[in-house]
Amino acid sequence: MQQKLDQLKQEALASIEQSTTLKELNDVRVAYLGKKGPITEVLRGMGKLSAEERPKMGALVNVVREEITEKLEAKKELLEEEEVKAQLASESIDVTLPGRPVSKGSRHPLTQIVEEMEDLFIGMGYSVMEGPEVEKDYYNFEALNLPKGHPARDMQDSFYISDDLLMRTHTSTVQARTMEGNVEKGPIKIICPGKVYRRDSDDATHSHQFMQIEGLVIGKDISMANLKGTLEVFAKKMFGEEREIRLRPSFFPFTEPSVEIDISCKMCNGKGCSVCKNTGWIEVLGGGMVHPNVLEMNGYNAKELSGFAFGIGVERIAMLRYGVDDIRHFYTNDSRFLQQFSVHE
After folding, report:
1. Residue 172 contacts residue 214 (beta carbons within 8 Å)
2. Do residues 192 and 174 make contact, with C-beta atoms less than 8 angstroms apart?
3. Which of 89, 193, 234, 283 has its CA 20 to 30 A from that of 240?
């Protein structure tokens, strides 16, 4: 039995020495010290020995097993160290090589337009308000003088989620919520930027989703002159100091009187060209005096207070300002298009 153990030890030590990988070394450990290995078999056969031989043989088996284990651990440390060295050598970095250029991103052109307009109106004393995109029918229509069955609802074909919920068709919903939430019914001066949704066929000038910035001012003695002066400042800031505006009669259910606002064409300076269809003017937004019904529905005394409201299409402003001929360019994530508007601070 002792001779067999010596032979097993020599074989095990030789196999350990010949191992070149951690996997091979683990296979040696399992082969000699595993549950089905020869060392274990010797231990199981000790029951056949006499009471005098059993302690001696047990001590001998333990000595052999410890020698093999120590050799295994030493070889394992050596192989792990060699493996780390090989990995470091294969993954070495030449710090003298030139670096790879990293492309910088920037704010989306529509975001840039929104932030610029927000800065403009904040400088004029406006506050920025936001509201939910999934809106109640009441705030989207009824609180804005559009009761159920009103024919003007057809002007904004809507995405309804239920009989009472829809994707908002304009950010005027934020105006309605702000007026309702103004407990003191005092002056209001806000703009409401955000996404809106309408069931429209996507083409070069239309999208089922687009962005608006709407404004609302309520106070004493607010007149159409205040609206015109505000929009003149806006036009000159966004399109140049030489721009002029004109107001044309129009219709919106929540304003009375209502107007469409045009700016003089910057391509021809009002002389007429293909961009302005030879009129010298380009339509940019709509507005008007807040309808007395809207004021009364939201708790205001229309005899004491008045106000004006306006709605600006962000994509419309961006297309005119940058000469973009297709609204879909803003949403296709084409890096070639977006890189033209990169602004690195």
Report:
1. yes
2. yes
3. 193
Residue whose tokens read 């939430």? 181
CATH for the 109-341 domain, from 3.30.930.10, 3.40.109.10, 3.30.9.10, 3.10.25.10: 3.30.930.10
Phi-psi region of 79 (alpha: psi -120 to 50; beta: other; left: phi over 0): alpha
DSSP 152-187: GGGGS---BSSSSEEE-SSTHHHHHHHHHH-TT---
Look up residue 159 and give its two tokens. Answer: 């995405």
**Nearest Cα residue to 313 out of 209, 242, 176:** 209
Q: Is 264 in contact with 252 (CB distance < 8 Å)?
A: no
Per-residue pLDDT of the chain (345 residues; tens, 9 = 90+): 667 777 777 888 888 888 888 888 888 888 877 777 777 776 666 666 666 666 777 777 778 788 888 888 888 888 888 888 888 888 877 778 888 888 777 889 999 999 999 999 999 999 999 999 999 999 999 999 988 887 777 766 889 999 899 999 999 999 999 999 998 989 999 999 999 999 888 888 889 999 999 999 999 999 999 999 999 999 999 988 988 999 999 999 899 999 999 998 877 877 888 777 888 898 889 999 999 999 999 999 999 999 999 999 999 999 888 888 889 999 988 888 888 887 654
Residue 81 vs residues 16, 18, 21, 67, 325: alpha-carbon distances, Å: 16, 17, 11, 22, 64
Does 256 count as an annotated binding residue?
A: yes
pTM of the model: 0.68
